[in-house]
Structure to design on (432 residues):
């Protein structure tokens, strides 16, 4: 296993051009593939998660051409996958696995979908239950409720109403919404229980609208996809910079002087994680923003304030708050984040375990975490990253406490941000 030793960092300062948003990239790829017409997608994220989606679409026979490093031309197949039988390996990409499951369940092919071992521990039963209501034939190849999946040809039909649970992952509702236009009948989706990670549904609805499908909604409770909803290509689409990836750099600016300025997103971003800046502001950071950039600097006092926040709306960027909390003046409490337990790893447990290694006092609840920083961070901690890109990126912030830290398996950042540590070095002078 590779390790990365980060030397103590005294100051963070500079500019970062963000990689494309993972959530927008994988949605745009699928929508372009399902659409009528040719779509040029610009500034696409180049990472493991998008590579899995691109590979899958290629295996399904979708015509695609790489125009430049981050620009792809996709020729839509209007939901008629040219390849009717295929095995797809989707790594640990939730944004590929869940939406492809729905889009393939509504086609007449036979497909097997699998991923890395952790993907086979991440739930998908709520989505399969909803798809089965529409007549989809989906079998579990391992444990019921989890991948791998075997999708068989079936007579799917628009039901007037489908129900879906929303309290484990919003990706299930996203997947259903994106696939329903393939049925060509008006369908109403009712959300059962409390929907989590709501802003990701806004991304889905926004991008579906760009591809010509307007979903009617009743708050967060029900969504109706009208009959004759056919996706049509918008021609050209630009992917915003990734708001979750921005969080590490903005936190660095807030902790270690700044300003650190991220380019590629503004406060009007369609990504919910842009609201991370509200949390940083509440911690006392100085935030500035413009058309397509945001910057963060440390508070005048030099010390961040502790935070008590419901983080359900920003589950990914909330992890960054957990390590930023090491630099606060008291106990930070991050609440309503039970979904952390079913992501790349059990993030509540992983975060608690690793924060303790740098000296923090941590309370790990079923759906919350409380972090009290030590008087002085423990130097030379070796951080395990659990094959979780965000664990690796979050713990790079420890070095900003002028504390040497070792990151195990730093390469796991490839899931969403392959050159993260090079970019981090550029604003901090950290060895990478
Ligand atoms: O739809 C999306 O693009 C995502 C939704 C969120 O997942 P949950 O809805 O499972 O919280 C988020 O954590 C994930 O990284 C991306
Ligand atoms: C939860 C995440 O990924 P996924 O899209 O695989 O759910 C994440 O990127 O933090």
């Amino acid at each position: 296993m590779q390790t990365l030793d980060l030397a103590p960092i005294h100051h963070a300062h500079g500019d970062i051009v963000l990689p494309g948003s993972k959530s927008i990239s994988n949605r745009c790829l699928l929508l372009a593939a399902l659409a009528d017409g040719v779509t040029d997608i610009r500034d696409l994220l180049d990472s493991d998660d998008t590579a899995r989606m691109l590979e899958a679409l290629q295996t399904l026979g979708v015509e695609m051409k790489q125009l430049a490093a981050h620009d792809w031309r996709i020729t839509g197949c209007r939901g008629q996958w040219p390849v009717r039988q295929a095995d797809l390996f989707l790594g640990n990409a939730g944004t590929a696995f869940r939406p492809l499951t729905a889009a393939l369940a509504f086609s007449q092919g036979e497909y097997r979908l699998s991923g890395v071992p952790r993907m086979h521990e991440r739930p998908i039963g709520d989505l399969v239950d909803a798809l089965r209501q529409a007549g989809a034939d989906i079998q579990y190849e391992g444990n019921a409720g989890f991948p791998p999946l075997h999708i068989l040809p079936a007579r799917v039909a628009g039901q007037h109403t489908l129900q879906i649970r929303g309290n484990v992952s919003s990706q299930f509702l996203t997947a259903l919404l994106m696939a329903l236009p393939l049925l060509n009948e008006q369908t109403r989706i009712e959300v059962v229980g409390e929907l989590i990670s709501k802003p990701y549904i806004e991304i889905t609805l926004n991008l579906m609208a760009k591809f010509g499908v307007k979903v009617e909604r009743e708050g967060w409770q029900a969504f109706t996809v009208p009959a004759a909803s056919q996706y049509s290509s918008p021609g050209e689409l630009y992917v915003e910079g990734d708001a979750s990836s921005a969080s590490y750099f903005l936190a660095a600016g807030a902790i270690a002087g700044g300003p650190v300025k991220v380019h590629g997103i503004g406060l009007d971003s369609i990504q919910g994680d842009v609201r991370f800046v509200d949390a940083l502001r509440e911690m006392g950071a100085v935030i500035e923003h413009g058309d397509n950039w945001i910057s963060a600097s440390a508070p005048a006092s030099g010390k961040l304030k502790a935070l008590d926040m419901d983080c359900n709306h920003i589950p990914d960027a909330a992890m960054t708050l957990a390590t930023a909390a090491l630099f606060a003046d008291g106990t930070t409490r991050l609440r309503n984040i039970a979904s952390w337990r079913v992501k790349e790893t059990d993030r509540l447990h992983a975060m608690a375990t690793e924060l303790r290694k740098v000296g923090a006092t941590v309370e790990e609840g079923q759906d919350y975490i409380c972090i009290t920083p030590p008087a002085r961070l423990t130097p030379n901690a070796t951080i395990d990253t659990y094959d979780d890109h965000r664990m690796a990126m979050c713990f790079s912030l420890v070095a900003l406490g002028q504390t040497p830290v070792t990151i195990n398996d730093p390469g796991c950042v490839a899931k969403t941000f392959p050159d993260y540590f090079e970019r981090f070095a550029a604003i901090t002078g950290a060895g990478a």
Observations:
- The radius of gyration is 21 Å.
- Residues 23, 94-95, 169-171, 174, 196-197, 200, 315-316, 339 surround shikimate-3-phosphate (ligand 1) (CB under 6 Å).
